[in-house]
Specification:
Length: 245
């Protein structure tokens, strides 16, 4: 996989987790030489901006190629995805550091941000192609549109508009957020998916989750308030503030 040089393993995870679970590798039968199943992201030292991602099976790879290959990122970036000849990725004991000082290798098998950990969870996830409108959920119930726009401004991915859905529960909020184009929406996911947001009167932050929306325009957002295809009920792990970048 080729991406812009500023990409790191955390941003890849935030984007790829929309299309497969890093835990799927547990069922794949792909094992390292030590007999340990791995599910990892590994950047190559000899090719800047190039990484390898181990998935559970070929179906997961095909989903990512179908939806993410050649999509734009930000102002001048692009992701290119191709099949690898390697059957599995070996563990790197001493990974080198990327330009942002994050490790070039990380395992995500146990990440609680995986969205396909069980058949029940997988059935609630409807994979959507990239779009300039994102669905956000598991945010504080008192969150305002201006506050959400401010959060994305801080991350340098300014949004053009926000629509909050009517609250289904007092435990969390959800809605849609629109960006100028698909490239900026992709960048927003890579920067802000799984971002912790403090909630009033809560001990732990909410872990905001993002995905591409099926809505074609913000005017029709209300019709899709119950049909976005992602899990909107936060689980205990979300409320406990477990953050897995």
């Amino acid at each position: 996989m080729n991406a812009c040089s500023s990409t790191n393993q955390a941003s890849i995870c935030k984007l790829f987790c929309l299309h497969f679970s890093f835990a799927e590798a547990k069922q794949s039968g792909q094992r390292s030489q030590e007999g340990i199943t791995l599910s990892i992201i590994k950047f190559l030292k000899t090719k800047e901006g190039t990484a390898m991602v181990q998935m559970g099976d070929s179906v997961a790879v095909e989903r990512c190629v179908q939806h993410l290959n050649n999509i734009p990122i930000g102002t001048n970036g692009k992701i290119q995805i191709a099949f690898s000849k390697q059957n599995f990725l070996s563990e790197v004991i001493n990974p080198f550091l990327l330009p942002d000082h994050t490790p070039s290798f990380k395992e995500y098998t146990g990440s609680k941000n995986n969205r396909f950990l069980s058949p029940a969870q997988a059935s609630k996830n409807r994979i959507q192609p990239p779009s300039k409108i994102l669905h956000f959920f598991n945010t504080p119930p008192g969150l305002t549109e201006d506050q959400l726009i401010g959060i994305f401004n801080i991350k340098e991915v300014p949004a053009t508009s926000v629509r909050l859905f009517p609250l289904k529960t007092e435990r969390s909020s959800s809605g849609l957020i629109e960006f100028p184009n698909i490239a900026q929406a992709v960048l927003a996911i890579m920067k802000c998916n799984h971002l912790p947001i403090e909630g009033k009167g809560t001990k732990f932050p909410f872990i905001m989750k993002l995905c591409f929306s099926s809505s074609k325009c913000m005017n029709g957002a209300w019709n899709n308030a119950t049909n976005e295809g992602m899990i909107e009920k936060e689980n205990d792990a979300d409320l406990k503030g477990d953050v897995y970048n």
